[in-house]
Amino acid sequence: MSRGSFRPQALVGALLLLVSVIASGAPSRLEALPPLHANEATVNGLAGVRYAINQTAGVALFLRDLEQTLRIMNRDQPGTPITYLSISGGGGRGAFGAGLLNGWTRHGTRPEFNMVTGISTGALMAPFAFLGSAYDPVLKRLYTGVTDKDLVRERSYAAIFFSDGLGDTSPLYNLISEYVTPELLRKVAYEYTVRHRWLLIGTNNLDTGQPIIWNMGKIAASDTPEALELFRRVMLASASLPGFFSPVMMNVSYQGKTYQEMHVDGGVSRQVFLYPASLFHESGAYKLLEGRKREAYLIRNDVLDDEGYQTVERKTLSIANQALRQFSQSHEDGDTLMAYITAQKDGFGFNMAYVTDDLNAKPNRKGKQLFDQAYMRALFNYAEERAARGYPWSKTPPGLSEALSGSLGKLRETLNNGSR
Questions:
Q1: What residue ranges in 12-113 does DSSP mark as E strands?
Q2: Is the pLDDT of residue 383 over 90?
Q3: 3-state helix, strand, coil in the chain (%, to 5)
Q4: In which band, very low, low, confident or very high, does the pLDDT at 30 lie, cut at 50, 70 and 90?
Q5: For the chain, what is the mean pLDDT?
Q6: CB–CB of 18/25 below 8 Å?
Q7: 203, 261 in Cβ contact below 8 A?
Q8: Rg of the chain, C-alpha, whole Å
Q9: CA-CA distance, 176 to 190, in Å (whole number)?
Q10: 107 near 344, Cβ under 8 Å?
């Protein structure tokens, strides 16, 4: 085409047509629920099964339910210890947590947790950690025996324009459904209603930016046909990294009108959590904890002193992926510190596990695999071996009271001495 025949109007028209085609091809959805009503809306016909903890009303609902549990414990089990477990995100690095739980069982000192919380990959682990050592083989299989094709179906780059994520997580939903059965739901419901133990999973409402905590025991105990699907979809949502995986759309009702919420990986708002920091002291409910030994365990599925590096390609996705990884790690540092401060304030002993640089394995960052099976197996074996000998839990977050390298050096020295 000659320079004189170029017409700006034609280019503008073509661009408008392209935008129109892209917009018409995007998935449709209902109007989002206003954030003010998050704690009052029903999900799959179920009410009161979640807490929007960025709101005073959400924290109050959380406290109301937990206070009832603690009062029953004080009546029926006076003086017994309270032990909480929190499992972080980390994708395939969840193999560390899975191995640690298996090794902890072998060591014979793994407690029964009164509360288990999970985010992202931690959400996939949490129900099995909650139900105890009988589910250790499930954790081992999930974090050593699966590959990308078992979790996600890759879409073409055209999905950037015509879909809601680069990957379709139908395979992951099917995998969740294989293990989250009606029988498992009955077990979770029994633990919640009869034994007063809590299982919590965090997601992020992308429409409103709200961190949402789901009471999975309440969902399981609702005994409705919709409970099983909701339980599975909450697990899926918490592990759905926005942009890379499709979000999970939740239909909710408020005052007779149906809305939709877009839920994604809980790590967007929290990488790890115990419970709302203001829960006990500001309400005066701290007295319900008195007279009991209290311990909080935090499994952080991450390598905190990784000295490896890579030459990042000058490509959009490579740059974005590396920046997201570094942002996620910094984000988790802050969430870990918040968990530590919360535990200290409420009289809980703080115990943290994480990967140190004595792990003799590195992920294959040059490949396209999201879940590097060889690396996951190495992580699992590494954690299982150390936990079976008696894991040396860190009592403070690394870097809080001394240099990061010094803190990790002491932990490595303890590990090495324990192997002799």
A1: 42-43, 50-52, 82-87
A2: yes
A3: 50, 20, 35
A4: confident
A5: 84
A6: no
A7: no
A8: 23
A9: 20
A10: no
